[in-house]
Amino acid sequence: MAPIKVGDVVPDGTISFFDENDQLQTVSVHSLAAGKKVILFGVPGAFTPTCSMKHVPGFIEKAEELKSKGVDEIICFSVNDPFVMKAWGKTYPENKHVKFVADGSGEYTHLLGLELDLKDKGLGVRSRRFALLLDNLKVTVANVESGGEFTVSSADDILKAL
Predict the structure, then answer these.
(1) Catalytic (active-site) positions
(2) Quick one: 96 exposed, middle or buried, by C-beta within 10 A (0-12, 13-18, 19+)?
């Protein structure tokens, strides 16, 4: 499947997360993003070094600034189960705006065309590192990393595009 790109409508699919009442929710991506400006940023794995120390903290630290520029939702996405994503989210007590969501089986990652094969590292098939800016489901920015790099998908990169 070809990677998602600017101009595409983001495919619909389901993702899971724990809501503010600690209830597991499985919802369609379209239900979360329709009619909104949304940042969907993906990471190869919860609790992994670059994801935990650089990628996620950048979006948490810049969340207010991103929201002041019209962003309605900031969603951190990974091929992990929702319990792992919930536990990972709790390691950022200062977080008020980033929603941690799970693509447990990698099906939505496949629909995006953003799979990263890390079987040789014992991690299976994961998501590439990326940051998408969606405006009413349409991709207006698609910053997708190569391999394990972290050069184009930061919160600062999205701020520059807003």
Answers:
(1) 51
(2) exposed
